[in-house]
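Fig. S4 source data, part A: sequence.
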Amino acid sequence: MEDELRKGGAEFKEDPVVIDGNVVTSRGPSTALLFGWKLSEILAGKDKAEEVAGRMLRDLVFR
């Protein structure tokens, strides 16, 4: 699929979460938590997102 995207002019990135303008996307189901945290940062601000991530034990899971 990556090759097809590139042929169509897309820039493919391997980052877990990518923001391009007002579009936020991620690589797949395994990045759902990272995607959710990024959305919470966008919608509620960095401080609130960090608070939520801490309560979800992010630092224990993603060292």
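Fig. S4 source data, part B ends here. The helical segments are 2-7, 32-44, 46-55, 58-61.
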